[in-house]
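Sequence in, structure out.
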Amino acid sequence: MTHVKICGFQTSEAAIAAVNAGADAIGFVFVPSARRRLTMTNASTLIAELREHCGYAHPEIVGLFADQPAEEVKEHIQKLGLDAVQLCGAENVGYAKELGVPVYKVIGVDPSVPISAQMPRIMVLQHRHQLAGHKIVIDTTVAGEYGGTGLTFDWEIAAELAHGLEFSLAGGLTPDNVGRAVAQVKPWGVDASSGVESDGEKDLVKIVAFVGAIRAVDNAPKRRMLNHLPLTSKITSIIKLLWPNHLAAAPPAAALGEETLESPSGQSSGLSSKGSGLKRLRLKPSSVKLPRLKVPGKKGK
């Protein structure tokens, strides 16, 4: 499944809506010059409300920074309990290593410069940060801006990069184009901010549509596979998709000291009735009798 990160939240309502829609990571901006910047106090309140709503299953909470002192970033990590940081400036591997948490490193693509002139820089940065274990975000860059520009870049170039690099695709992604982007580029993840906003504010409808468009592409191969399966296999596959833990293997019957259901072939089903209050039956092949079918217009013998 494509990893989904949405950044730039300023209200807990919008962040919770993103989590409910299926976002994997939520980003809060702490870059001083950024329009979506949060203070430590505001962020603390939003994160507390988000964690209270989600419980232990809360998404990855990411703080966005750009060319700020490492001590300042570490203070935010400690006081807010950030799970990861996204570095949007010219931070190097040594700087990132000081922070002590997982790192997303933004590598910018300037749409006004020929991509051939940028590839050496992109590949060097990608190699350094990937070796350090950092996740890469390929984003459109504009002078004086640290993301959230709403501008796309050439996805054909991104698709070529994706052959040898796991990265999140960012830059101008919206509910209308993110499905095509995921299908064409096949990135590890996607990242959005302004693309799910209306009039500068997070739009709950766009957030839901954005995640839905990604999951539609993710699930398309599974739907095609289901079309070629027998009915019983389709039902099992659908259950696995909707409730992946529902068909988890149960403990052996002998360990539970209980009887199990057997299939007509004599094999145990592996299901347990412990705590159900129901008596398990052992079905033998000889005990399974199917009714005779009557064919209209034909007399039975």
